[in-house]
Design a protein that fits this description.
This protein is α/β, with parallel strands linked by helices. The protein has one domain: Rossmann fold (3-Layer(aba) Sandwich). About 45% of the residues lie in helices and about 15% in strands. The strands form five sheets. It has a two-stranded parallel ribbon with strand order 1-6. α2 runs parallel beside α4 and α2 crosses α6. The chain is globular.
Length: about 220
């Protein structure tokens, strides 16, 4: 993706919606003197992202592999991953840009998704058989390789967090989540349940009087 390209050609509606948004901003710059810059973030991630099927590959891979679940790797795909802590620095620098420009913000290290999956699997010591290869779905970009000249020259920005460090952070956070989930489950199993004035048998049995039952533990 070239941020100096005058007419990008989006290959899906998501990309088209972003391009149309840029046109609206440029209209306001030309017509109303709006001071602005368009930032095109490329594969931004953070270890504390919520989990879900529609999250980025980084988060889905770590979340699934940490729980012993399989992942699908799109054959031949590649991405450059930018940690949000670095992205914040780029966004702050963009506030000082005087003339309008569309600027890609991303990491210069482009890696194959299969290599990313292998890094995460190794960090979590997961079963290699959990990694499955699949074809890229239609209307998805195989390789995202942003040009970053404007990021360097207009923002004076270079990322500080390497992919290896980012993977360590993401995997450590997933391990912490699993430990918290296990602790919560263990606590729930040890808390007695009550049906009216009667204590239902639990691993840790506690007898409650009728008064205690009404007032709560």
């Amino acid at each position: 993706m070239d941020d100096a390209l005058a007419l990008p050609q989006p290959n899906n509606r998501y990309g088209l919606s972003k391009w149309l948004g840029e046109q609206l901003i440029q209209y306001e710059v030309r017509s109303c003197g709006l001071r602005a810059a368009t930032l095109r973030p490329c594969m931004i991630y953070h270890e504390a992202e919520s989990l879900g099927d529609h999250r980025s590959a980084m988060i889905r891979f770590a979340g699934n592999l940490a729980r012993g679940l399989p992942i699908d790797v799109h054959k031949g795909s590649a991405r450059a991953w930018l940690h949000v802590a670095d992205a914040v620095r780029a966004i702050e620098a963009a506030a000082h840009v005087e003339q309008y420009a569309a600027i890609n913000i991303g990491h210069p290290e482009v890696v194959y998704t299969a290599d990313l999956a292998a890094m995460i699997r190794a960090e979590l010591d997961a079963d290699p058989a959990l990694i499955r290869e699949s074809a890229l779905p239609p209307q998805m970009t195989l390789i995202k390789r942003p040009t970053l000249d404007r990021q360097r020259h207009m923002l004076g920005f270079e990322p500080r967090i390497s992919l290896a460090e980012g993977v360590r952070r993401v995997c450590a956070y997933q391990r912490m989540l699993i430990n918290s989930e296990n602790s919560a489950e263990a606590h729930a199993e040890s808390v007695p349940r009550r049906d009216g004035n009667r204590t239902i048998e639990t691993p840790t049995e506690v007898l409650l009087s009728p008064v205690q039952s009404r007032l709560g533990p």
